[in-house]
Amino acid sequence: MKDRIYAEPRAQVVGFRFDEQVASVFPDMIRRSVPGYGTIIDMIGVFAARYARPGTRLYDLGSSLGAATLAMGALLPHQDCELVAVDNSAAMIERAEALLRAAGLTQPLQQRCEDIRSTELSNASVAVLNFTLQFVPLADRDALMARIAEALVPGGILVLSEKIRFEDAAEDSLQQALHHAFKRNNGYSDLEISQKRTAIENVLIPETLATHRQRLQAAGFDSVHVWFRCFNFMSLLAVKA
Ligand SMILES: Nc1ncnc2c1ncn2[C@@H]1O[C@H](C[S@+](CC[C@H]([NH3+])C(=O)[O-])CC(=O)[O-])[C@@H](O)[C@H]1O
Ligand SMILES: O=C(O)C(=O)Cc1ccccc1
After folding, report:
1. Domain around 147
2. Residue 59 labeled ligand binder
3. How far is 166 from 102, CA to CA, in rounded Å?
4. What pLDDT score does 4 carry?
5. What angle do CA 139, 91, 129 make, to 5 degrees?
6. Which superkingdom heads the taxonomic lineage of this protein's source (predicted)?
7. What is the pLDDT of residues 60-104, one digit of tens each?
8. How confident is the model at residue 107 (pLDDT cuts 50, 70, 90)?
9. What is the pTM of this model?
10. Residue 158 dihedral angles phi and psi, to the nearest 5°
11. Strand ranges of the sheet holding 109-112, from the earlier edge strand across to the other edge
């Protein structure tokens, strides 16, 4: 279904929430809003195929409709790995359940309607935060990252995809303008772009690449690689030694 959530003028734009209305248009919304989303999902499958270890878990943290879980399951060479998809939006989890069932993945799969800040994490070879950390309160990000690093087996990976901000004001406004041009070209009006921007203002808090690198290093990731970037969106591969 087409995302028209912010198409009509609103007297008051309230904070963005992952409710039933958003879940019902989510595939269209994310594809038209996040440059490279399809490529990133496909490559998460490639990362899983390369880094998954037999007998371990693969966590999709903030799984929404399960796109990353599906991509991993489709390319996983091991049948004894468990896929764990976690999201605290009941609307997302409900729809993901049907989509994942229809996909007929062959590996064991757990879906959890839980907060990623408190969900159990252990014996992981792959963890994915695909545009999720940006919604976690700033004060909770370090502790979550430390818990993810702790849960990974040696050689395990985290794929961290985020909207980012730039220290330099001119650079930041150019990258934001390019992102808006991308959305315009995908059929969003200036009104839709501006109302959505207001809705996510205090909900999606982007950080700089430098801040992400520091947090990953402090959490115990030895090597961090930028493997994708387009405008103010990027994805990192972080490897635990
Ligand atoms: N504390 C939290 N605990 C659990 N879930 C959370 C939390 N905070 C936010 N979420 C969930 O994180 C997801 C973020 S969307 C991820 C896309 C997906 N990864 C994809 O690859 O398609 C990204 C976006 O919409 O920009 C939503 O489903 C929230 O409910
Ligand atoms: O739409 C935007 O401007 C974004 O930054 C991406 C996004 C995608 C889906 C939900 C919230 C934000």
Report:
1. 1-241
2. no
3. 41
4. 98
5. 40
6. Bacteria
7. 999 999 999 999 999 999 999 999 999 999 999 999 999 999 999
8. very high
9. 0.98
10. -120, 130
11. 109-112, 82-86, 57-61, 124-130, 152-163, 233-239, 223-230
**Distance separating alpha carbons of residues 74 and 56, to the nearest angstrom:** 16
Q: How confident is the model at residue 133 (pLDDT cuts 50, 70, 90)?
A: very high
Quote the CA–CA distance of 44 and 53 in Å, as a whole number. 15
In this prediction, does ipTM exceed 0.95? yes
Contacts of residue 104, defined as CB under 8 A and 6 or more positions apart, other chains included, come to: none
Q: Which ligand is nearest to the CA of 164?
A: 2
- CATH number for the domain spanning 114: value is 3.40.50.150
Considering its fold, how many domains does the chain have in total? Answer: 1
* β-bridge mates for residue 232, sequence order: none
Q: Which ligand is nearest to the CA of 161?
A: 1
pLDDT computed for residue 106 by the predictor: 94
> Residue whose CA is closest, atom 29 of ligand 1?
62
Ligand 2 atom with minimal separation from the 233 CA: 5
Which candidate, 124, 150, 130, 112, places its Cα nearest to that of 41? 130
At 40 the three-state DSSP class reads helix
Asked if residues 52 and 44 have their Cβ atoms less than 8 Å apart, the reply is: no
